[in-house]
Amino acid sequence: MSRPNPVQKPQAGTPLVELHGIRKEYHRGSETVHVLQELNLSIPRGDFLALMGPSGSGKTTLLNLLGGIDRPTAGSLAVDGTDIAKYSESDLARWRARNVGFVFQLYHLLPVLSAERNVELPLLLTGLSASERKRRVQAAMQLSNIADRAKHKPSELSGGQEQRVGIARAIVGDPLLLLCDEPTGDLDRKSGDEILDLLQALNREQGKTIVMVTHDPHAAARARRILYMNKGRLAAEPEK
Amino acid sequence: MKYLPLIWANLLRRKVRTLFTLLSVFIAFMLFAVLGAVDQAFTGGVQLADANRLVVTNKVGLINSMPINYADRIATVPGVSTITWQEWVGAYFQDPRQPITAFGVDENSFLDVHDDMHLLPEQAEAWRKDRQGVIIGEGVAKRYGWKAGDHIPLRSNIWRDKQGKSTWDVTVSGIYHGGPGDELLMHYKYLDDSRAFRNNQVGMFMFKISDPARAGAVSEQIDQMFANSDAETKTSTEKAFVQGFAAMLGNIGKIVTGIVTAVLFSMLLVIANTMAQSIRERTSELAVLKALGFSRGGVASMVLAESLLVTVLGGALGLSLGAGFAHGIGSKLPFVQDFRTTPSDIAIGIVLMLMLGLLAGLLPAIQAMRLQVAAALRRA
User: Fold this and answer.
1) B12 touches chain A (CB under 8 A)
2) Which domain holds residue A191?
3) Strands (E), chain B
């Protein structure tokens, strides 16, 4: 199903994510829309997987399932050995807080908070002290090369800087899985490359497992492997 | 506590809107405190009324008088102990806009019937001995800066003396605490001997009874005694009298409750609308918070906390300022006694601001709780 990226070999490791027979359906009036169909996928620890495909192919839906913000209609979805498809909504919320970091195309920073307060948000759900939260926020911002903009509001940052804050927020809780939905989709080439450099470094140096949805082959080329989605199915090659 | 910066930042997102909402709540609770004081001013007298004290007035109305010799006949009724009387002076100091609640009273019996008045014995003695002596309540003393020994040219808009003068020279003999209220009490004899008309008449008799259970029977006996006379009487307990007096001005309690209910209901709609608008504006932000792991309950609590912060901040400010205003103005209002926001009003106010905050935030909180993360992010 998958093929190794010609440049980067996938890192060997035990599977972190395993999907078996995943189906996702929506009901639009009397019509049933089959978004994902009998999906099977294994993502090893330390992988950097790019998901490509046309709009409506199910990429973002798959990402949402992996992040536990949506639930499959059928099938099993195990992350680190736990089938999260069976979790209740509140269990999923707790699970997300501990295990998943999201990076969005439109950054989705809270405009009323400074960069550092935005990065701190996931840590508010932990029992960490204020000083420990501060320490971790600083570390995540340094790792994302945005520490010098800690006190700035999102409106005072460029798109690339906002995305760096978004990445710092995603990694501050040290999640198992980093899920990126078009992380460079709203950036110019230079800023996009910087963000991809950062994601690559997080994968190589910090061992973060990353799943990235993208339309951009240039961005996908930075991943260890690429999978293509079409009409709710995964393929190793893009559809001709 | 760690969520407070986030909640506060959300409130400051639209500063003008938050300011106007805070101001609305502030004014509503200030009104609540002041109207509470109005209610207290009308009903406070009822609470102070003595169950052992009965009041006799002319059956026709308060402005009609009764002959003073009724006192001797009332005193013969079994169960009646000490009897006293009073006559309305219609007094003011210097300017009719500075009215003073003043009565001409019997200096020998008044203090015995009103044993809840506290006056130094030497001042009471001085008052009894000085025909032109007056005793004044603390509020009157404070308002005009009067003290024992001061000579006051008291004026009346009802009574003239036999020379046609409306000024009554009196001397402050003492200052009393407690008792019937914030009044000026002069000698009835001084008033009656000098006034040009309605001599030997009084507006009201008051007496104590030994057994409060017999109040009904005693009242009936007195009223029967004067039935078919030129001045028929109406006898009631002091409490019933005060209640009746307040009722003449309308049911203040009901009016106040009606106004407060209408104002608070409007506030509920205003805050609920503001909160709903605020939640609609940041659907995607709430979705992000949920994606980060904030639970349904956590997001709902934050919305409720925001709504509570508005009502508690605005409400506490309004309540304190309203109570302060009532306290400040209360001592300056003529004729009005006990004009203050009571501790129970403040407690009710606190409960109301909490309820208002919770109710106003409830619907937006439910909206936030039910928000579907994936769908909201897709829309964003």
Assistant:
1) yes
2) 45-68+88-234
3) 53-58, 66-67, 80-88, 91-93, 99-100, 102-105, 117-118, 133-137, 151-156, 167-178, 184-187, 201-202, 204-209, 233-237
